[in-house]
Amino acid sequence: MPAWTMLELDSFNSLHQEPSAKNQAMRLEPNLTETELSGSAVTRTARILLRRAADEGGLKLTATGNLSRSVVAEMVEVIEWPGFDKDELFEFHKVINEPDFFARAFVRVLLQGTKLVRVQRDKLVPTRLWQTGCCSRSATGPCRPFCFTSPSGT
After folding, report:
1. Could you tell me the CATH number of the domain that includes residue 126?
2. What is the residue-wise DSSP string for 93-132?
3. pLDDT of 118-146, one tens digit each?
4. pTM, to two decimals
5. What domain range includes position 62?
6. Reduced to 3 states, what is the DSSP secondary structure of residue 117?
7. 8 A C-beta contact, residue 54 and residue 113
């Protein structure tokens, strides 16, 4: 089921308008504290994905461009997302593919849209923007929410 079908009409309409002070349907805020960032499911999931991609030299993709089932299976085990119930997901799907796992798919679209990851041959890899801009304490802009001190997270 597409995610937008679960929205109320006002929320659906908000997504069709440009973000503004009045319409805050979705916005990346670059000036959040580390405490605020650590409370965000999107930030936690993005950091997990970025760390894994950096540590492993990229995340394996299928021929159709989705993350491989093995990568998705590992992500299902480690991701905490509001309202996400792993057991419920397996009630509907015997094997979980990336499009079936909304939290994972959403974060990937976000990271590709902010140019922090890209497809390189058969892998999803962190971009130079993330590697150079996000691995410093002074990172700003779209990198800021996904920062930590080194690509390995140490």
Report:
1. 1.10.10
2. -SS--GGG-HHHHHHHHHHHHTTSEEEETTEEEE-HIIII
3. 999 999 999 988 777 665 555 555 555 66
4. 0.70
5. 31-146
6. strand
7. no
